[in-house]
Amino acid sequence: MDDIIIAHEIMQEHEIERYFEIWRESVMRSRLTITAVFLKIANTTEPNTNHQVTSFLQSKLRKTDLLFQLSDGNHWGIFFLQSSDVEARAFLKRIFAILKAERKLQHIALNASITEIRNNNVMFEDLLVKNKEMLAGDEQLTWTITEVKDYSEQPTELVKVSIIEQNAIFRQVLESGLNRLDIPHFTLEVKNYEDGYSFLQSDSYKTGHLHLVIMNDILPRKNGLEILHIMRNMPNEKKFIIYMLSERNSEGAALNAYEGGVDEYIVKPFNLRLLEAKIKRTFARFWL
Amino acid sequence: MIKLSISFLITIIAILLVVLFIFMVYLLVQRQRESHFENARDRYIQNYSQLWYDYLFNKEHFSMVLVPRGRAQVEAIELIFSSYLKNIINEKVQCDIKQFSNQYLKKFYEKDLLSKRWSIRMNALYRIADLQIDELLIMCQEFEKTKISEEEYFQLLKIYSIFQSNLFMEKIKMPIVSYSESEYRRLFVLLEDDVFIRFFDDFNSWPANIQFAVIDTAPVKRNMQYIDQLKKLLSHDVAEINIRALKGLYEMGVIDEIESYIPFVTSDMWEARLMVAKVFKHVPLTYSYSYLEQLLQDENWWVRSQAAKTIVEDRYGIAKLQQFIESSNDQYAIEMAQEIAARKEENK
After folding, report:
1. What residues does A35 pair with on adjacent strands?
2. Which end of chain B is more exposed for a tag (fewer CB within 10 A), N or C?
3. pLDDT tens per residue, range A208-226
4. Does B49 touch chain A (CB under 8 A)?
């Protein structure tokens, strides 16, 4: 077991607010979930306990986690960046187990609350108040973990979908399939084009929205590889998720497409449900 | 000088004008018919492709309005079905298309097979294979007995390979027409694995173009069971077969041991040495380096180049080439190693 390190410098409530505002905005912009954990000592009368708790918590955090102390001196907060409530809960269970087992720390008992933040409708003050209320319950209870659910609702994001396929019947099949596709927290706006040139003329690819492009490699007027090249050379090319469909089942063609920047290379004929599953997995990766 | 009376000339012009007029009327009528046909076809696609989609993919009830009435609607259905079959794999859809075609399209293709026009008969044969109209198999066998072209016979073989593999094997053994390697490949690629593997059983009994087509088709099928079959062919007496087997094994990309390949490092055929240098791409460099070093000093430029490319693919390949450059006396090999290493550095 780690030895206790005595009192380190720790950030204070008023210092952390500015950082929180930046993180809160990046929750939306970069789709990064943050989770706040608040801790309170349940019942102890021993002196120097606050220092011990601070040092203990600091020794258990990752470099990407931020510990701070609230102005009342009885609460600690930790922001876990790019982490969900599942990881925060696992962390709490781990530190609770260590505290219970460690003889030198057995006089400490904690209660904790978890707030997963998946939108930017949260003010720092409100966050503190809600968690303090959550932790202000029965003093006799120890090692409890409660949750504030007010900010875990993920906003719904609009995704533009462009199908570029020459065969009108197959285009219609793809369009119907994608219009039926239910992806949690994303709405798809599906448009289709019969050739590369009409897609480029549409200007729909110039907006800042996340954009799923499903296109054939061989197309009239501008072909798939040319469109791929244009999209991947745009400054905000990361917004494109590009699926290329091809009749060519050769390693060379697939390699060429992947090196050009496609996210998926799908050989025709393919299973429509497999395409839908791949699209769902692609979007599931955007949020933790 | 020939003397022609004016009345005679007027008669000739009048006749020509009448012929021209009849011809124009004929063209206009034909165009009208064609346009009527196209409109009927497009109208069917426009009105019913969504119904077809709902029936085939969304398990909705079959509607009798989908049953074709006339040639134009048959062509529309062909277009819808071929768009589905060419782009989408779905067993249920394939099964429904087969069932529908056997029930409602069979009579059209049956009639087409009796047509005097070659293109109509060929189109029917293509559709029978694509839409899997197995109820026309007997009709096809009868059709084979008539005077048919090489292309029609080829298409018949394709149909047999899909519907009755035993019959296909019989026909292939008694070739009425000899096809090219690429044509045989087109046939073999359609075969189920349990039928295709039978070609390896009595491999030597087949003519060379069939043997080559079999070897070239095996890696396309991406089935591990062909690795052993191709490896057996490495000891075949014919060098061309050895080289093609090496190529097939390289394309399969699974090399489980290198003992079988080592003799080709010193083969008299540079093509075999080239292929073995390629095969070693799929072998860890620790096992293959000594042989690749030997191939890097080969007398043939292609072999040297491939050996260097294979070495450089490995994580420690550049270091190995540098080591070779410092220790070797072979100027050609050193230059090749330098060139390939430099190219790799550039592409990093």
Report:
1. A80, A116
2. N
3. 788 999 999 888 888 888 9
4. yes
